[in-house]
Amino acid sequence: MKFTTIYLEGNTIEVHNSFLGKETIKVNNKIISEKRSFLVVTMVL
Fold it and tell me: Taking the C-alpha atoms of 28, 14, 33 and 41 in order, what is their torsion angle to the nearest 10 degrees?
């Protein structure tokens, strides 16, 4: 799922993330960064 798109100085930066914890950053449709989170936990104390 596309999270956001940023247009900066003629470049397109897209951030995609999934419910399974995968985040991908693309610049001009080329994958620049890909990261996975195994445990996504938010605790409120």
Answer: -170
pLDDT in tens, the chain (45 residues): 888 999 999 999 999 998 888 899 999 999 999 998 766 555 566
The candidate with the shortest Cα–Cα distance to 17, out of 31, 3, 6, is 3
Q: What CA–CA distances, in Å, run from 22 to 8, 31, 43? A: 24, 13, 20
Rounded-to-integer distance, Cα 8 and Cα 19, Å: 27
* Residue 11, CB-side half-sphere exposure with 13 Å CA sphere: 10
Answer whether 15's CB lies under 8 Å from 1's CB. no
